[in-house]
Amino acid sequence: MSTDPKAMHNKLLSMGTGLFLLIFSITVVVLDASNFLAIGLAFFVLMIGIMLVMVGAVVDMDNKKKAPDQTHTEIVREIVKVRCKYCGALNLETSQRCSNCGGQT
Which domain range does residue 43 map to? Predict the structure, then answer.
């Protein structure tokens, strides 16, 4: 869960409001089934309630996907080259002889 108290409050507020609207719209349909205007209004209130519940459920998903800060280790390999003292060509540090003139490095 989020450690931010405002985010938790917003999540609970939207889910709570959504659940209230769901229950309210179902109650209106059950108790006032003869009034078509109330049924139409209850349908839209039901849709808003479903959206609020979904928003409350999705708010915290971004925080769950983030992994804790992990240290990143990067290994850097450097190739060291040295110049031949006879011809000036670049050779690997580990080579015994120059690749250009064959002289001792």
Answer: 5-59
